[in-house]
């Protein structure tokens, strides 16, 4: 078994864009299928998008991705070192968590089997604010051990609460005398909520983290014209009705000016990520994608603000680096629309979703009303 020596910071390897695997789950769509996953993945790889983020919680995403990656259309054209696989441990269902070292090891082993791979590039502890901090730290330690065993290359944590993520990142550095490699935060580097840039990134830098993933640039589908996505698990979106109405008003306003709110919001998130990134600290954007049409639309948007070349390699490596000049020029073109949307959002600008909320008992890792 190979022992990974993660001397190369992840900021030098992770590309500016990542394909989100939640688009192959029941949370997002009603009928995730192996055909859908293969079609999207094959086209994504052709276009140069070869970094994938998923979770064991996004059922059946890992299974579908594993089937697609092992299909001859992909396996015969791309070697394992030509794409990056990231997944998560700890969250099992909407109300069930297990951060014990035994479960972490079991979950990683299961992910390796589902994804049909001999190693994972990144494993995150999933939604860390839902469990006691000491359990997260113990789980991180188990993942560090698995790096030494050759199962994982890099270790990170994910969640919504920026203060919790920053505090855990500092404690990891203190306890293990090495930093986390990466932190993932969702829906807080967006046109609606930009708190990650102002409240989190410097704290992560200080804790030695070299890479941050900004996921849900559309705030789980809030920032689009057709409302939040509803899959087989129902409407799980945390946005209150007032915010939903404001987002719909903003979408109508942007549409009346010949633009799509989803496209505008994605440009904003990518531009912000690029403006913050440098050679030693990368902020990368995870895009939730469910179809080839959505994939091509999103990459078309990305090409407006990322450096381009005829070789699709620019999308799946960090070689190109941030293009501040290109991003700044596009930001200036969009600035009036950005400000107009944020004005329409009004008091909902920078509103943060409660996570985990008053209905959750962190100490007991279950809904607060549950009694045994």
UniProtKB/TrEMBL annotation:
Residues 17-307 form the NADP-dependent oxidoreductase domain. Keywords: Oxidoreductase. Transmembrane segments: none annotated. One of its GO terms (molecular function) is D-arabinose 1-dehydrogenase [NAD(P)+] activity. GO terms for biological process: dehydro-D-arabinono-1,4-lactone biosynthetic process. InterPro entries: AKR, NAD(P)_OxRdtase_dom_sf, NADP_OxRdtase_dom. SUPFAM superfamilies: NAD(P)-linked oxidoreductase. It holds the Pfam family Aldo_ket_red. One of its GO terms (cellular component) is cytosol. PANTHER family: GH17980P-RELATED (PTHR42686:SF1). This is NADP-dependent oxidoreductase domain-containing protein. It comes from Penicillium cinerascens. The lineage of its organism: Eukaryota, Fungi, Dikarya, Ascomycota, Pezizomycotina.
């Amino acid at each position: 078994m190979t022992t990974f020596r993660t001397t190369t910071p992840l900021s030098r390897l992770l590309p500016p864009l990542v394909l989100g695997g939640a688009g192959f789950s029941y949370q997002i769509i009603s009928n995730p299928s192996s055909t859908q996953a293969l079609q999207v993945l094959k086209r994504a790889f052709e276009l140069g998008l070869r970094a994938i983020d998923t979770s064991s919680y996004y059922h059946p995403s890992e299974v579908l991705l594993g089937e697609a990656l092992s299909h001859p259309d992909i396996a015969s054209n791309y070697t394992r070192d030509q794409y990056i696989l990231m997944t998560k441990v700890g969250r099992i269902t909407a109300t069930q968590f297990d951060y014990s070292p035994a479960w972490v090891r079991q979950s990683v082993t299961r992910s390796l089997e589902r994804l049909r791979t001999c190693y994972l590039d990144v494993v995150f502890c999933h939604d860390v604010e839902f469990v006691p901090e000491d359990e997260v730290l113990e789980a991180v330690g188990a993942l560090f051990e698995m790096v030494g065993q050759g199962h994982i290359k890099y270790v990170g944590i994910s969640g919504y609460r920026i203060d919790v993520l920053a505090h855990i990142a500092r404690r990891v550095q203190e306890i293990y005398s090495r930093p986390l490699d990466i932190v993932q935060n969702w829906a807080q580097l967006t046109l609606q909520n930009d708190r990650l840039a102002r409240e989190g990134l410097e704290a992560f830098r200080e804790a030695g983290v070299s890479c941050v993933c900004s996921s849900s640039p559309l705030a789980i589908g809030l920032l689009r014209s057709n409302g939040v996505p509803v899959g087989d698990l129902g409407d799980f979106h945390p946005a209150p009705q007032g915010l939903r109405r404001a987002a719909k008003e903003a979408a109508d306003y942007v549409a009346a000016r010949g633009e799509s709110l989803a496209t505008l919001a994605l440009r904003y998130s990518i531009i912000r990520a690029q403006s913050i990134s440098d050679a030693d600290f990368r902020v990368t954007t995870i895009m939730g994608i469910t179809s080839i049409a959505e994939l091509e639309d999103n990459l078309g948007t990305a090409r407006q603000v990322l450096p381009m070349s005829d070789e699709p390699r620019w999308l799946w490596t960090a070689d190109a680096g941030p293009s501040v000049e290109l991003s700044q020029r596009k930001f200036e073109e969009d600035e009036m629309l950005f400000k107009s949307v944020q004005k329409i959002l009004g008091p909902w600008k920078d509103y943060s979703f409660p996570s985990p909320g008053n209905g959750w008992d962190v100490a007991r890792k279950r809904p607060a009303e549950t009694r045994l």
